[in-house]
Task: inverse folding
């Protein structure tokens, strides 16, 4: 096995994180540039350094994927969720159990929470990511102008405190409805009984085999009639294979079983 192959195997043994489930060329490129920046001659040397420097492992985990997010990302999709999907999902249900998976720094779950509150839908919202450091930032809830540029003015006034330098902090009342915790889509048990799962802009990193497992697990996580909302480049090719049916662009409904 080459240096990189051994590294992948050892990282799995050490952290449970399976780099083999991520597309190899892309992952190798990212990690090679990380290794060079950290000035290790080989992946083997970097692995040894993990034992000496726990912050290195943290920085490494932070490099696995891109973390960029923004509020109301692809805003027309959120409009469709609000106007077409949520009214049907919420009818005849006392509350909605929602899950924002791979939520990064929190823009996505906060977006969903604002919409649900505006619609007066009682909800429980889980927000998860593999990376603890982004979850800490999500809980703090401070954002720069780029992240908040698509937040409608009435939401900005209601749920954000303006700070210096065009920054904003999410108000406690919005944070209260959301439970942030660490979750690895590749190895942890999935929540049950979800009415809505939002998982966007992470599937692009995974191999086809890993995607298949994740879509299956999402489908099992949804109640019949529940909806999976994916990223705008992440159309599911054969949704029926997972017991899902297309509902709106980039949204799939779990068919009754
Ligand atoms: C580009 S961000 C997506 C943020 C948000 N969902 C959005 O669309 O704006 C990708 C996120 O996926 C997370 N991620 C990568 N691998 C993961 C895994 N195996 N399980 C859970 N989250 C993962 C990363 O830590 C990162 O925060």
Result:
């Amino acid at each position: 096995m080459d240096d990189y192959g051994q590294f992948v195997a050892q990282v799995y043994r050490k952290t449970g994180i399976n780099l083999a489930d991520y597309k190899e060329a892309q992952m190798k490129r990212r990690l090679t540039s990380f290794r060079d920046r950290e000035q290790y001659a080989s992946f083997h040397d970097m692995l040894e350094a993990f034992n000496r420097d726990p912050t290195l492992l943290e920085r490494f985990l932070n490099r696995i994927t891109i973390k960029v997010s923004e509020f109301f990302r692809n805003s027309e999709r959120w409009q469709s969720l609000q106007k077409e999907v949520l009214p049907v999902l919420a009818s005849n249900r006392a509350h909605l159990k929602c899950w924002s998976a791979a939520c990064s720094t929190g823009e996505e779950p906060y977006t969903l929470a604002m919409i649900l509150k505006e619609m007066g839908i009682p909800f429980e919202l889980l927000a998860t990511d593999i990376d603890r450091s982004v979850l800490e930032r999500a809980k703090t809830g401070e954002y720069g102008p780029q992240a908040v540029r698509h937040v409608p003015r009435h939401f900005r006034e209601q749920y954000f405190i303006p700070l210096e330098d065009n920054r904003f902090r999410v108000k406690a009342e919005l944070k209260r409805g959301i439970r942030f915790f660490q979750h690895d889509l590749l190895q942890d048990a999935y929540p049950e009984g979800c009415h809505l799962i939002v998982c966007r802009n992470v599937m692009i990193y995974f191999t086809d085999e890993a995607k298949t497992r994740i879509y299956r697990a999402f489908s099992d996580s949804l109640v019949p009639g529940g909806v999976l909302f994916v990223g705008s480049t992440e159309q599911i090719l054969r949704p029926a294979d997972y017991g899902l049916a297309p509902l709106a662009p980039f949204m799939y409904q779990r068919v009754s079983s």
User: Anything to note?
Assistant: Residues 75-90 form the longest helix (16 residues). The mean pLDDT is 95. The pocket of S-adenosylmethionine is lined by residues 64-69, 73, 102-104, 108, 129-131, 134, 184-186, 200-202, 231 (CB under 6 Å). The domain at 75-254 is CATH 3.40.50.150 (Rossmann fold).
